[in-house]
């Protein structure tokens, strides 16, 4: 901030609208825009790139007697409205969220959904103040719509039954906010908006409650953000990239929200890039023509300069490696190195800790990359590489270099798989997970890892020698040798065919031979479980000389197998196998305390 305090003025607060995918974010914005247009003369509301600016007098016209415009010295509200960015709540500015304030849209019948939870998580982490718009009140059975009216006036026109049904849904949402750690109430009951979240019941369809939402947003901004809204009007502009887009005739451009200072055509700027900061010069500043619907951006107007807060499209050379969510800084009369260092410092805050081995992460903006990295750190999933952008062939190549099979995975948040990467993915040993809800993405990956580990354990278990202790029954010698055939009872564990068996002489294990057959009631079987009586054939010993009736025999467990059983597969084997293993290890370790460790 420079010292021309006299040049300081209050900028428009930036409002983000977020919420679950079909809870009505876009229709709410359209309603606010539409009523703003019908309220004022056409020029009252200005469209920016990715944003709509609604001036204070238009807001007070819509809010009627809810607002006294003389109470406010903020110029209005700037709504960010890039519909593709339901993750744009993760766009950053100087280490915080880009938005000064947020509206969390919740369908009053549907309550919290995965993306609602995620939005709440981001609001909590960035400390962004927010209000809850409880949308779709008009779907309450028996609702009597009062188009465009403040919500309390509308409630007065409802039957008791409709009102109590609505209240039930509203209290459900207040409860869900409370579970998420926020104390909330209907906005007209909130005394202190710093301690409580205001819930505004409304309908994007009928416009009921929209005046209230604007009133609460203005009040909150005025009360809590006045200091933050003070900017140096003429200072070098600062902003955040919303999106990188190719425009015919301009090449790669960046849709940018400017939140401080002024940006002029011809300015030298530094923009956060995928490799190094990009230093370039503005060739054109583009705004949509007045009241062109923002999403049909066919026609732009060139403007000479843009002051905060505003959305603008910047055309300049070399922007193709710019990143959504990255900082934009005007250099003006400062040393270029200093500005590059500033941009690098801001990008460094988002540096993701990467490991020697781990998964590849791709996300649509820097902020969502940061949110992904935080969530993966909590889930203790290491990251090999993390980048902004769609999934490209080189991501698949990198994922294939992971050492552990379960890390040969790409987690993509809100990104596409590029066409040229599709065929590579088919032939590569890499698993792709994509989702537009962060914790769902991580949950899917964790489930996959668990299943993979379970399958691996099952294969290991098939190959591992299982422990067993069994006793030769008296009067059950069917053949003395070549092979010896005796009747046995399995005391603990699982006797498997083709295993070496032996006896303990003191603490010494003495191998006597190898099982070459197991018969149960005359049928050949591969194994016998604890409690079963079977006859076995043993190659090697002679009954009466090497083994005796009444002897206890053990399956010989190789040291490596004993270690795997004790350390990795203990939960996978049965209680009696654990018992046999424990007794076997105990005897072995009397001679060598470190055996099998």
From TrEMBL:
The keyword Signal does not apply. It holds the Pfam family GTP_EFTU_D2. PROSITE patterns: G_TR_2 (PS51722). GO terms for molecular function: GTP binding; GTPase activity; translation initiation factor activity. Keywords: GTP-binding, Initiation factor, Nucleotide-binding, Protein biosynthesis. The keyword Nucleotide-binding applies. GTP binds at residues 19-26, 81-85, 135-138. It comes from the Archaea. InterPro entries: EFTu-like_2 (IPR004161), EFTU-type (IPR029459), P-loop_NTPase (IPR027417), Small_GTP-bd (IPR005225), T_Tr_GTP-bd_dom (IPR000795), TF_aIF-2_arc (IPR004544), TIF_IF2 (IPR015760), TIF_IF2_dom3 (IPR023115). Function in general translation initiation by promoting the binding of the formylmethionine-tRNA to ribosomes. Seems to function along with eIF-2. Belongs to the TRAFAC class translation factor GTPase superfamily. Classic translation factor GTPase family. IF-2 subfamily. This is Probable translation initiation factor IF-2.
């Amino acid at each position: 901030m420079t010292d021309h305090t006299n040049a300081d003025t209050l900028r428009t607060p930036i409002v983000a609208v977020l919420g679950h995918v079909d809870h009505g974010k876009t229709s709410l914005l359209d309603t606010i825009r539409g009523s703003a247009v019908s309220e004022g003369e056409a020029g009252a509301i200005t469209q920016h790139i990715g944003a709509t600016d609604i001036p204070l007098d238009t807001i007070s016209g819509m809010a009627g007697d809810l607002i006294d415009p003389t109470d406010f010295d903020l110029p209005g509200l700037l709504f960010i409205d890039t519909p593709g960015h339901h993750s744009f709540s993760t766009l950053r500015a100087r280490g915080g969220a880009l938005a000064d304030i947020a509206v969390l849209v919740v369908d009053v019948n549907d309550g919290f959904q995965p993306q609602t939870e995620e939005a709440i998580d981001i609001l909590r982490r960035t400390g962004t103040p927010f209000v809850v718009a409880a949308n779709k009140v008009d779907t309450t059975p028996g609702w009597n719509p009062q188009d465009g009216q403040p919500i309390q006036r509308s409630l007065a026109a409802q039957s008791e039954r409709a009102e109590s049904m609505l209240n039930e849904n509203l209290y459900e949402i207040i409860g869900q906010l409370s579970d998420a750690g926020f104390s909330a109430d209907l906005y007209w009951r909130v005394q202190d908006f710093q301690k409580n979240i205001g819930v505004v019941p409304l309908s994007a369809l009928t416009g009921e409650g929209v005046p209230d939402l604007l009133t609460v947003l203005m009040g909150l901004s005025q009360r809590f953000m006045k200091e933050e809204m003070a900017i140096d009007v003429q200072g070098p502009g600062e902003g955040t990239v919303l999106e990188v887009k190719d425009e015919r005739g301009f090449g790669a451009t960046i849709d940018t929200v400017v939140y401080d200072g002024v940006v002029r055509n011809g300015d030298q700027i530094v923009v956060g890039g995928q490799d190094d900061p990009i230093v370039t010069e503005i060739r054109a500043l583009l705004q949509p023509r007045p009241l062109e619907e923002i999403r049909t951006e066919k026609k732009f107007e060139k403007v000479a300069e843009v002051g905060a807060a505003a959305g603008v499209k910047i055309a300049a050379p070399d922007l193709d490696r710019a990143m959504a969510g990255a900082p934009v800084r005007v250099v003006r009369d400062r040393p270029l190195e200093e500005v590059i260092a500033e941009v690098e410092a801001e990008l460094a805050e988002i540096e993701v800790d990467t490991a020697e081995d781990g998964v590849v992460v791709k996300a649509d903006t820097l902020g969502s990359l940061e949110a992904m990295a935080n969530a993966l750190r909590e889930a203790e999933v290491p990251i090999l590489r993390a980048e902004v952008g769609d999934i490209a062939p080189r991501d698949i190549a990198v994922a294939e270099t992971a050492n552990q099979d379960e890390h040969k995975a790409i987690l993509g948040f809100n990104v596409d798989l590029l066409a040229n990467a599709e065929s590579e993915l088919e032939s590569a040993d890499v698993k792709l997970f994509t989702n537009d809800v962060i914790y769902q993405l991580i949950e899917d990956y964790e489930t996959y890892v668990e299943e993979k580990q379970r399958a691996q354990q099952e294969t290991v278990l098939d190959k591992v020698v299982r422990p067993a202790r069994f006793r030769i029954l008296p009067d059950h010698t069917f053949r003395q040798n070549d092979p010896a055939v005796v009747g046995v009872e399995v005391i603990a564990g699982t006797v498997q065919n083709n295993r070496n068996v032996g006896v303990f002489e003191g603490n010494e294990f003495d191998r006597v031979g190898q099982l070459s057959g197991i018969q149960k009631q005359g049928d050949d079987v591969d194994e016998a479980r604890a409690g079963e009586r079977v006859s076995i054939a043993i190659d090697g010993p002679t009954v009466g000389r090497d083994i005796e009736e009444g002897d206890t025999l053990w399956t010989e467990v190789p040291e490596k197998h004993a270690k795997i059983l004790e350390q990795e597969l203990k939960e996978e084997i049965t209680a009696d196998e654990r018992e046999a293993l424990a007794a076997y290890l105990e005897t072995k370790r009397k001679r060598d305390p470190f055996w099998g460790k």
